[in-house]
Amino acid sequence: MAATDTSPSPSKGTQPRTGDPTIAALLTWLVPGAGHVYLGRVPFAIAAFVVVEGLYVLGIVLSKGMLFEYLPPEMRSRFAPALAPEAGNLGGILYHVRTYGYGYGFPRPWPAQMDLGTTLTAASGLLNMLLMSRAHFDARVVERQPGKPIGPALAAGANLILPGLGQILQGRRVRGLVIMVCLLSLFALACLISDGANLDRERHFYYWAGQFLLGLPAMIAEFVNGHPLMTEMPELVDGGIVLGSVAGMLNILTMLDAYGYSEALHLGEDPPGSKDEATTQKGVHA
Amino acid sequence: MNLLVHGGLFLLASAIIVLISCFFAESDDRRAFRIYPKRLLRFLGGCGLVVAIMLVIEHTFASIH
């Protein structure tokens, strides 16, 4: 992300106002939408709260709060849940851990919609991280200038729908297509060599989280062929898990690229990594 | 055969990791592609060095022979 002056600036409009970006982001982390209430954008804050927390609550209902029972007993430390994508929604995960924790201490059958439920809670965490980045941006920019590309959080979020989509929406088609082909190919190869066994959250709790960062393609692959019944693991399953996780984590890098590019254009700065103004201007008008 | 497959998967993953990192480091696509070969070589060289160090340490301290 581009370096910016984070000091509060005077309000330009009647309702929305600028504020401290760090406070806005931290408030959003704790309670989805709270950062936007702080910025005077109450209707947006209410909508964000309903969507993000609604996903989390629905996920808990479907999975009966049993997500952390996926962890084997030896991994059930106090901070083990903090490495799950749900940690993006701090209020949600704190409620989850406090209310359901690691269950009753004995194995129970998983609910029928366990996979969908845990995917929804994870999606809530990721969505709230995007909301935090949006609050951080909105704290610095009150009025968006017409003609600028899509907002940073939206550009980053588009890469969760399809890797590279954010870059394509910004007009950087070559980059977007290369990202799309590379990451989807890597992920497809990962699923292929491990026969889909890489995608089960019960089998690979933390590696699942890494692969989940690829977004919608990973979710679709999981629900199509992510829970195969097998008597023994494929020989290359470890390689598949690693490659899938690499694809997911690289998608975070592409989201940061999309975020930084849009942010710089909206703030009137050079995009990150640009060496000279001439190149920058070429990129802007491409 | 197994070593070849793992080596191939490693090369593929390395090629994509370095390409995406080039995109992240450079906002201009042409410059990103230009610096790619040098970065890939440096990445592979670095990984080779780590492998060599690990093998030496394993051979020296963890060998069952």
Estimate the global geometry of chain B from the Cα principal axes.
Answer: elongated
Number of helices of chain A: 12
Q: Roughly what percent helix of chain A?
A: 55-70%
User: What about the largest sheet of chain B?
Assistant: none
Secondary-structure-based class of chain A equals mainly alpha
- Mean of all residue-level pLDDT scores of chain A: 87
Number of strands of chain B: 0
> Rg of chain A from C-alpha positions?
20 Å
Binned strand content of chain A: under 5%
Q: Flag low-confidence runs of chain B.
A: none
Gyration radius of chain B (Cα, Å) is 16 Å
The run of helices and strands of chain A is HHHHHHHHHHHH
The number of distinct helices of chain B, counting runs of at least 4 residues, comes to 2
Distance between the termini of chain A: 21 Å
The major beta sheet of chain A can be summarized as: none
Offer a few descriptive terms.
heterodimer; A: 286 residues; mainly alpha; disordered C terminus; B: 65 residues
How would you sum up this structure in a few lines?
By secondary structure, chain A is mainly α.
Question: How does this structure look, described?
Answer:
The complex is a heterodimer of chains A (286) and B (65). Chain A is built from twelve helices and no strands. Chain A is mainly alpha-helical and 286 residues long. In chain A, helix 3 packs antiparallel against helix 5. Chain B is elongated. Chain B contains two helices and no strands. Classes of the chains: A mainly alpha (286), B mainly alpha (65). At the A-B interface, helix 8, helix 11 and helix 12 of A face helix 1 and helix 2 of B.
Describe the SSE topology.
The complex is a heterodimer of chains A (286) and B (65).
Chain A: H1 21-30, H2 34-38, H3 42-63, H4 90-99, H5 114-138, H6 152-161, H7 165-169, H8 173-193, H9 205-212, H10 216-225, H11 237-267, H12 277-285
Chain B: H1 2-25, H2 29-62
Helix pairs in contact in B: 1-2
